[in-house]
Fold this protein.
Amino acid sequence: MNRKLIGALLSVSVCFLSLVTAWAHSGAMGVVKERMDAMTEISRNVKTVGRMLKEEIPYDGEAIANAGEVIADHAGEAMTRLFPKGSLQSPTEASPAIWTDWKDFSQLAERLKASALKLGDGARTDADRNSIMSDFAEMAGTCKSCHEVFRVKK
Ligand code: HEC
């Protein structure tokens, strides 16, 4: 991927993340609250890495590696088990499509996990900055792919 494209992806994903956080809900309970909290934690980590890659704060490979691990820990099965069938209690933004297209939904959760681990490994082994950028962009892309289909704005 070239620098321009990566730059564009970064700014898109970071803008998108700040909007997402602004919409965070209060008043949720039980598993809905648990998954909102997990998503918020994911988002906090993505933002920190995004700011480092945009050089708004100093680059720290170890911190990126740790962020990748935290995100991965909340992804895959840890994420999908927070979506028990029919858990649509207000103020959830989960779409009922999650349970009709469970396979696609869980694949996206796995993709997030794999891409977060890849980002973390790259940062830990001090891969070149371009490859870390493109791993980051790929990871942020999975948020968007899932939200577009499985999250509805209320
Ligand atoms: C497999 C699908 C999936 C992936 C991947 C995913 N999300 Fe989500 N996300 C959801 C769903 C569904 C909701 C709505 C949950 C609800 O309201 O019950 C959500 C909600 C959120 C929220 C709002 C939480 C709140 O308090 O209302 C944030 C922030 C968020 N996601 C960030 C992210 C970020 C950042 C990533 C990528 C690093 C990501 N998500 C990846 C499905 C996903």
The mean pLDDT is 90. The CA atoms of residues 57 and 150 lie 32 Å apart. The chain is about 75% helix and 0% strand.
